[in-house]
Amino acid sequence: MTRDVLVIAGGRLLSAVLALIALRVSTTVLSSAEFGYMALMLGAQTLSTLVVINPVGQWINRHTHAWWDEGSLAQRLRAYRPWVVGASLLSASAFAMWALQQTGQWPGMASIAVAAAVVAAVYNGTYVPLLNMLGHRKQFVLLSNVSVALGLVCSVLFTWHTASAPLWLLGQATGLAVGAVLARSSLPRHQLVRSVSGPPVLISRADYAQFCIPLALSTACMWIVTAGWRFVGEHYWGLEALGQLYVALTLTLQIWTLAESLLMQVLIPLFYRGLEGQGRNGMGAVFSQLINAQLPIYLLLLGATVLSSKALLLLFVGPAYHAASSVVLLAAFVEFFRVVSNVVGNAAQATRQTRYLIAPYGLAVLTLMALLLGSGLLKMPVEFAVISLAVAGLVLFIALSHQMKKLLDWSIHWSGLGIPALFAGLALLAVPWLPPVQSLFSGLLQVAWVGTVATALAVHVLKTNPGLKALLQIKLRGP
Fold it and tell me: Model's pTM, two decimal places?
């Protein structure tokens, strides 16, 4: 298991480097207005992937190992195609209607790019992680990075003569599509295809009504909190301001995605395997292990992001966006509450009681919309949009924690959070006294020392983390 963790860690580090290179290139190639337009295109893409695809994808994740053990996984995944086609049409149509209403012009290329991005992202997000879920770590890491690298190359080629957001997104979709095809073609060699009798049923109507519909309602609220707000932001602050804001949020997201995806790729397959055959008490114990293995890392990352916010902007985005350091600092809190809410929300998937997600996400949406509309009507600076996102994230985390306690008896190992919480607190206090970052060398130096301190603390904390130790004892591969 230690070797698997190292393989995934190395792969995620490479993916993060490639993503940051892509961010640097895209912020050099695309103007603020084009970046704002791409933010809206991606908002339309995630509408269907969150509301239509995510609930079914969660169902697949929850049953991957059981279907694999019985030999029906490949047949069930064939029934996924109508969902993907429907999702792509929904996102493309939604974006086209918005563009027509705003500009009066048909966004042909942009709608095609949105539809292509949905299909490519869904299949890449299904077949590539499937290798990881089934324990084939090296193939998963290789194809994850091939997808990102090829997407960057295609985006640069597509925008070589005309720098536009739709062409950049088409390039990203091309890379994801190739990665998905390669992952799917490698699965038969891993004995994925085992014939069983009966039709390929992905999910029954009763299970869809009980599991997916409540989850879809909560993910619709999640879409508003994570992407839908961009359309409100564009209305009040314009495309250029949205582009500046989106770059800072994307930079922070890339940093946090490195840690989140690394932890989830290592722990979530173990978590779902550990749930198999467990009663309520057993599931609560496994869920507590999942939470306590991740919370200390996220607190350390919060402090590290706060300390290095100015250096990150200087290193990884184009010069036109360097004034957004305060947004990066605020975005660190947005990301912290996002990832810890995602961790806590896993209790709903573990127990298949996804209706418990609706009220927390609904409350977060009401909070966000009230703050955004108030800020927009009062003509507050665009930074208040990020503050609104952070406050809504805090409300979501508190409400989710309350709801998930009703489902499972889980607990937080508070003593294990002492050092990470102290580091995060000291980082906030130190921000006004940090030396200015005026060159690439000073930026690299700041990121290096902050990363070294945070990594050393993470290693110390994880060595004594009982939740992580318990999860790593679980064997992924069944009969």
Answer: 0.79
